[in-house]
Specification:
Blueprint lengths: L2 H10 L9 H14 L4 H11 L1 H26 L6 E6 L2 E6 L13 E3 L3 H5 L3 H30 L5 H29 L10 H24 L1 H65 L1
Antiparallel strand pairs: 1-2, 2-3
Helix pairs in contact: 1-6, 4-6, 4-8, 6-7, 6-8, 7-8, 7-9
Length: about 290
């Protein structure tokens, strides 16, 4: 996911996020520890026993958010079977809602452009479902990143490569799930599912959650994250060894240059001294003669 897509997804999401620096996060956690009168060791043990809950929440919060959007849409339509029809007028696609418009609070018209902000924000149609997918992906990236960083800070046995590997795998999963959901919505939009206002959005939710769950199972089964972290560790170690080797060679060259320079300076000084002594001796002999 590019930075532009991430920013767009974050703007589209209805979630409220609080951004903290690592130092602020540490102070917040330590403050909570002090308020509850527990030691850092006890806090770390407590975190290890409960870390699965916030991890699950970070990974699937976007699904809950999208389900809430679907529930709002169904409530506004009056029932889950609310139907729509897509018609093209003057080269522009319009969505026509069936039923009594006066009973709806948000979508209280009978016909809208398919790209109408109100329609898209309610998750109607392909554009609405894709918007929900994009916003959910951005939300998941933020929450998972926050969880991984906090987990890294709370665990003494985790390395920076573990953090980077875990984040990389999480982002890959989010990207695959989002791409699969978008593809599924594209297919569903050409079928009878598109006749239901909430249909494409439900397809996005189900496919995205299912693919994410399957990817988690595959990751656990084949230890893909662990292998990725090991690969990053090996690359980091090779890079460190290569850097040390280059540094050692540079230091050796600097030492050799310094030695050659010192030898040249000493030789030059000795030559000057020898010349000076020879000249003085020559004058002494000339005076005596």
């Amino acid at each position: 996911m590019s930075e532009k897509q991430f920013r767009a997804g974050a703007r589209d999401s209805d979630a409220v996020l609080c951004v903290l620096s690592l130092d602020e996060l540490k102070r917040l956690w330590i403050g909570e520890i002090k308020n509850n009168n527990i030691s850092l060791a006890e806090a770390e043990k407590l975190w290890e026993s409960w870390r699965g809950i916030p991890q699950f929440a970070a990974q699937y919060a976007a699904v809950a958010d999208d389900m809430g959007l679907a529930a709002r849409l169904v409530k506004d339509l009056g029932h889950i079977g609310g139907r729509v029809r897509y018609v093209q007028y003057s080269g522009r696609v319009h969505v026509i809602f069936k039923g009594y418009a006066g009973l709806r609070k948000v979508l209280n018209g009978t016909r809208y452009l398919a790209s109408n902000p109100k329609v898209v924000q309610m998750g109607v149609g392909r554009a609405g479902a894709v918007r929900a997918i994009r916003g959910g992906a951005a939300l998941t990236v933020v929450l998972v990143s926050a969880f991984r960083v906090f987990d890294y800070l709370m665990s003494d046995n985790q390395t920076l490569t573990y953090l980077l590997g875990s984040l990389a795998m999480d982002f890959i999963k989010v990207g695959i799930s989002a791409a699969a959901a978008v593809a599924a919505v594209g297919v569903a939009s050409t079928t009878a599912v598109a006749a239901f206002a909430v249909g494409p959005l439900l397809v996005a939710i189900v496919v995205g959650a299912l693919i994410g769950f399957v990817l988690d199972m595959v990751d656990d089964r084949f230890a893909i994250s662990a292998q990725l972290i090991d690969a990053i560790d090996r690359v980091a170690q090779r890079a460190e060894q290569s850097l040390r080797s280059h540094v050692d060679r540079v230091q050796d060259r600097i030492a050799k240059l310094a030695e050659d320079l010192a030898e040249a300076v000493i030789q030059s000084v000795l030559c000057e001294i020898e010349e000076y002594v020879r000249e003085r001796m020559h004058r002494v002999i000339w005076i005596q003669i």
